[in-house]
Amino acid sequence: MNSYTLRELAEALDAEIQGDETLVISSVATLENAAQGQLSFLANPKYRAQLETTQASAVLISPKALDGFSGNALVLNDPYVGFARVAQLLDTTPKSAVGIHASAVIDPSASLGEGVAIGANAVIGENVILGENVQVGPGCVIGQESILGSGTRLWANVTIYHNVHLGQDCIIHSGAVLGSDGFGYANERGQWIKIPQTGGVRIGNRVEIGASTTVDRGAIEHTEIHDGVILDNQVQIAHNDIIGENVAIAGNSTIAGSTKIGKYCIIGGNSAVAGHLTLADGTHVSGGTNVTSEIREPGVYTSTSVAMPNKLWRRNTVRFKQLDELFQRVKRLEKSVQTED
């Protein structure tokens, strides 16, 4: 287990120290549940009362919130970012694979960099290239001509089809499927004619893809996910989508085909974005929103209806169906009033 003194953490975070700089920190915890030897943080003012009762050995805190607190502290402008960085330093997550397991099936044409680890029953296909220190968890399958950049890690049972390229330091969680066929068909007199999906998938550096998320390959050109993107669990990225740098997409969201999501966008959970659209850089889509037209200006966009008692919802649904009729009645009344005038 890693441990750091408050002085060492301050240097890593470029933070100011209040209190004992020789104090040793071995893990992180919430204000409510922290114990001795642990570091906590205050990022939300509503938890201020817990600051007075916490058993944490030290806290990450902003200069504004420091007033009145006399305990050990690391003082910096964004305590939550500080918490994330300390959590990385103290991370105890095990490796997804260690060494190369005897049951792994590795094609002779595959190229393995120094320090590659491959778990039990994994399959590495023809002409696959694994960069230095790549970890491939148990049961993973990597198809022919695919490339994984150095430091990339696959957890158990990830499936990567052929011609999928991942950059450096990516994390792919269990059950994710990268490079499956896009939903491309032509209809001939009621018969569906499959369009071979001959493009690939190109994923940048430092991308994290959640459990059971799917990224379809392109129909002709590649599907692209750029640097720094984070995808939650059970997200669907369709063929030929382009996801810009540092986009975040929360769970159960679906991006239909040939859509371009600009840089720094945030897509809330259970949202759906229709195909062949463009979302401007910096767009924020609230959870549960259906995006059916292009968004050219950054901002917050929402289309959900609020929860309400079922009886009221049923009544309002009936009224919604009557909306056009009511509109026509209002038009007739307006016309009648104008005629009388």
From TrEMBL:
<comment type="similarity">
    <text>Belongs to the transferase hexapeptide repeat family. LpxD subfamily.</text>
</comment>
<comment type="subunit">
    <text>Homotrimer.</text>
</comment>
<keyword id="KW-0677">Repeat</keyword>
<comment type="function">
    <text>Catalyzes the N-acylation of UDP-3-O-acylglucosamine using 3-hydroxyacyl-ACP as the acyl donor. Is involved in the biosynthesis of lipid A, a phosphorylated glycolipid that anchors the lipopolysaccharide to the outer membrane of the cell.</text>
</comment>
<dbReference type="GO" id="GO:0009245">
    <property type="term" value="P:lipid A biosynthetic process"/>
</dbReference>
<feature type="active site" description="Proton acceptor">
    <location>
        <position position="239"/>
    </location>
</feature>
<protein>
    <recommendedName>
        <fullName>UDP-3-O-acylglucosamine N-acyltransferase</fullName>
        <ecNumber>2.3.1.191</ecNumber>
    </recommendedName>
</protein>
<dbReference type="InterPro" id="IPR011004">
    <property type="entry name" value="Trimer_LpxA-like_sf"/>
</dbReference>
<keyword id="KW-0444">Lipid biosynthesis</keyword>
<feature type="domain" description="UDP-3-O-[3-hydroxymyristoyl] glucosamine N-acyltransferase non-repeat region">
    <location>
        <begin position="23"/>
        <end position="89"/>
    </location>
</feature>
<keyword id="KW-0443">Lipid metabolism</keyword>
<dbReference type="Pfam" id="PF04613">
    <property type="entry name" value="LpxD"/>
</dbReference>
<dbReference type="GO" id="GO:0016020">
    <property type="term" value="C:membrane"/>
</dbReference>
<dbReference type="InterPro" id="IPR018357">
    <property type="entry name" value="Hexapep_transf_CS"/>
</dbReference>
<keyword id="KW-0808">Transferase</keyword>
<dbReference type="InterPro" id="IPR020573">
    <property type="entry name" value="UDP_GlcNAc_AcTrfase_non-rep"/>
</dbReference>
<keyword id="KW-0012">Acyltransferase</keyword>
<dbReference type="Pfam" id="PF14602">
    <property type="entry name" value="Hexapep_2"/>
</dbReference>
<dbReference type="InterPro" id="IPR007691">
    <property type="entry name" value="LpxD"/>
</dbReference>
<dbReference type="Pfam" id="PF00132">
    <property type="entry name" value="Hexapep"/>
</dbReference>
<keyword id="KW-0441">Lipid A biosynthesis</keyword>
<comment type="pathway">
    <text>Bacterial outer membrane biogenesis; LPS lipid A biosynthesis.</text>
</comment>
<dbReference type="GO" id="GO:0016410">
    <property type="term" value="F:N-acyltransferase activity"/>
</dbReference>
<dbReference type="InterPro" id="IPR001451">
    <property type="entry name" value="Hexapep"/>
</dbReference>
<dbReference type="GO" id="GO:0103118">
    <property type="term" value="F:UDP-3-O-[(3R)-3-hydroxyacyl]-glucosamine N-acyltransferase activity"/>
</dbReference>
